[in-house]
Amino acid sequence: MTVRDLKPLPDRADNAGRGPILNPTRVLASGAAILALVLCVVGGSKPANAQDYPRLGLYGSMFGDGYPLWDVNGVLQDTTLNAMARYHEVILDASPITPYRPDAAAALRARRPGIRLYAYVVSHDIWPANNPDSTIHFPTRMNRLVRDLGGYLYDTSGNYFPGSRINLAKRDAGGNYVVAEGLADLFQDAIVRTGIWDGIFLDVYCKSILWMETPGERIDYARAGYPSLSAFDAAWGVAVDTLGNRLRRLAGDNFELIGNCAQSTNYASFNGWMRENFPYQNGGDWYQNMFRDPGGYFVDDTRFRAPRSNYLFSASASGNPYDANNRRKARFGLASAALGEGYGVFGPSDRSARPLPYHMWWFDEYGVDLTTGAASPAIQHTGWLGQPLGPYGQMVWVGTQPDAVSNPDFETDVTTGWTFYYTQPGATRTQDLSTSASGSASLKLHVPSAGAVPWEVNVHSEGTVFMLAGQIYSATFWAKASSGPHRIHVVAESPGGGELTSATLDVTTSWKHYSVALVPPSAGDAELELFVADAAGDVWFDDVHLQAGATSVYRRDFQNGIVLVNPSNEVLTVPLEREFKKIQGFADPVTNDGSLVTQVTVNPSDALFLIGDDRIAPATTQDLQVGPAWQPHSRARRPAPSGAAPSRP
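^ that's the sequence the OP posted. Answer follows.
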């Protein structure tokens, strides 16, 4: 297309509700010298279903004037395109690419065949766009659709409700959610059918809108057509599902839908979800953001429809991407994403390429030249870890702190230091001399039938440790089950009754070493309890401990190296079963110093990427085991007995 076909737009984010940029001055970070490196070597890349690791996602942004993909004259910018093409998946605003510059998307695909491109839209907000090119300009089409349907949302002062001008809950006389349905139709017509995009990224796709209210800004639910705020909010949730489900039907099975807002259960319609402000979304921590059900990264990795695109988005803490904290955050988020099947994303929290051109930021772990071991900004050196050799696991070791367990290995008996509790006739505990993980004996618990509650068959330590609020404690043990997966509950409980904290995990039919991180919200003495009555069968335990401190890291092995993730608040020294090599870095040469190592130190809430031809499984003595897909325990899912904890025989 010619330059004269390009319609000039205001210098603002050309999407629904991003607002004007007050300072258009481009501010480069102090690490700008890094940007002078060669950015791109055009070459073939693998299709989406065979993407290598680490998998890079760009939560990109555009402006109405084309920045940063083309200049004021409409000329595509090779530097920007080369930089963006290094990512496996790229999110960019639906407009102005879709209506005016599909050649920009084609230019990205030419640089990286197999790249996945997603059109960014906001599901329930629109700025008052009124472009003369009203039949093509996407924001104008969206704004006029809402206007014509009488679908604006107002506050009690008669103004547009801030952050959500669109009333998704708007219904017609027949009860149809006409605005939600209309937006789905618009997205299909303006975005899907063009063939430019692989999918749509729906931001602020929230099942409830009440979190947007403030003491000074209240929704006028009566004007929105509802008798109460609760009725409005319930209808809002239905309308959100209506939009997504209708769009899925219109777009077909092969077009991807990705959402963003809190946790989602739209598994049938969507291909993935984003966790923002990782690992602190919704006031949580790493364990909740990874294991929460619903909404945890590992959970979403299995439940959304294929092909899945799940994101961990870590927000930069300052304008300098290469300060120590930002380097750590980028590395921690990317490594955590590599434990699963999704994508690590790093950038400013406001997702604005002005004033920070974050699409140019590049970290050591993003690309590595395996011939030299040096970090590389070249496109052919992305995906340098190759394919995983298996799922994530935990490297587990026993700590040196005081232990709640006085008889951890059951070599003499299974009664000393332990109390057995059961309500099921036929439940037993025995010493098993025929199988063990260490020594010659193990504890065997027999569950005759699945219980109404998991604690119907359990053991608990007679010793305790004192837990401090907010500190990490580790329950480490070997376990296996007669049939699997067999869910067990690992509980730190006050001796007089009352849970301090807990977690669940699924035990398999072979001996594996588990480490469960327990972080109590309040202080107190705690004994270790193991609940096994979720299913019938036998469960074996060996070498059981409850101690202060973290005694494991999460690890995943790949064809060309390993990833180690330390989500704890402690510095951990990790023994390795053989020699690995650190990346020779340019963004973080202290962490990535290029040295050969047989043990490494991983700082709190940090990670390490190591180079190594890791095709041989680690030695058994190093305790590397496939980790459980355990999830933080929900009190709501564990019915407590009435009154105090039950007395135990």
